[in-house]
Amino acid sequence: MAASRTFSLEVMTPNGPVTSADVSVVILPAADGELGILAGHAPVVTLLGAGVLAFTDAAGKRVRYWAAGGFAHVRDNAVSVLPEVCCPLEKLDPAAAQQELDAARALPAATREAAARRTAAVNTAQAKLRAAVAAR
To answer: How far apart are alpha carbons 9 and 61 in whole angstroms?
Structure first.
């Protein structure tokens, strides 16, 4: 008997479930780069960065979300993605993303901790703006 080429994906934010599907591939925005997952992937836990969470469902439809923060867990042909923030990519507004970037750049950076928070906010906002523009 051939091994299944699909596996389960669940995406859940602190506000509740986002999506659940049988998928053939998942691309995660890991903190240190994109991580591709196929059926039979070795167990892994990874921190999520800010970027596009993409997957191809069992019917072959490609689906994309904006996700930032949190983590993902792969085990036993199941992927659980637990981002802090997640929304369908097509719902991102480039003008709003630009405003978020402007606000992040205006954050104070007088101390080492404040500078680190500012840098993280700017990096996240830049990634969101790139995703919003690319989705148009």
So the answer is: 14
Cβ atoms 46, 71 nearer than 8 A: yes
Find, among 72, 69, 97, the residue nearest to 85 by Cα. Answer: 69
Task: Map out the domains of the chain as residue ranges.
Answer: 7-89, 92-134
For the entire predicted model, the pTM comes to 0.89
At the top level of CATH, which class does the domain 7-89 belong to? mainly beta
Largest CA distance in the chain: 62
**What are the pLDDT digits (tens) for 57-97?**
999 999 999 999 999 999 999 999 999 999 999 999 999 99
